[in-house]
Input
Amino acid sequence: MKRQLMALCLLGLTGGSLLGTIAPAAAGVRSIQEKEPNFPKAAAVTPIYAADDAVSFAGAMTGNDREDIHAFRMNRKDAQFSLNYFGSGSRNISLSLYEDTNKNGQFDASDKFLLRARPAKIRFVNTSAGTNYLLRATKSQNAGGRYVVTIAKPLRVVSLSVLSAKALTKFDRKVPFTKKHRADFFVNVRTGGKSVITTKRIKDNDNPRFTKATHSQITDQPQVTYDIRLKDSDPGRDDQADISPTGARTLRIRYSPITNEVFGPNGKRIGFGGRTITMRGNARKNRASISFRLRTTLPPVIR
Output
């Protein structure tokens, strides 16, 4: 089975002021509430829950209750989820994630340990889509505590930076003893139907470098599409440079923040995030190249 990357972001909130308070699940998240109280039994186990999208588990550990087990299976083949843990009494509660290797919904010695919750830390673990998981909450002291665990698609920060351009043909007529024949380039970038970057015009420069030409957006989408236009500013009408290897002059690229791959207008991979990519047009007139870089990061942890 194809392996996917699961990003696990664990946030722990501690402090006596939170006692008796559970933060509500986010909108669109189905909440599974454990039946409480479950003591004098030593453990409580929820039925296996098959999730197609975001889900949260809530529980409380009091008295002789030493262990809660929440079993779930992600049905999405492109599953990539963040795990957020918070609640009162978290100093006494330890939360761990396991792969339910025999898929019986019970915690066994053979189950594979994946991750233990740490306050305000981000970790990554490779996992397979369709795998069964166990969330195991244990209590170290008699003092009570409550918790909520939310599993949802993580938000990512995707950034596009336009770096430079280069004229590969002449854009204007030669004017003796001047640089007027050189291009006056500027760049426009659109994504999601909106213009997000418009650089300043750089006059009389066939190989300009652009500054402050970066756009960042927060997304949970598997792909982000950008349309990049390079134009030569002229009185009355701006000429659009050809920077696409297809028949169109506008360069359309798609970026997958999950796999870190960048795809060109013909659907073929042209590079990876974090690396400079240069694309060239193929027209006879007003042909140019454009260099850019994409990258993705996780949003900062809220402390």
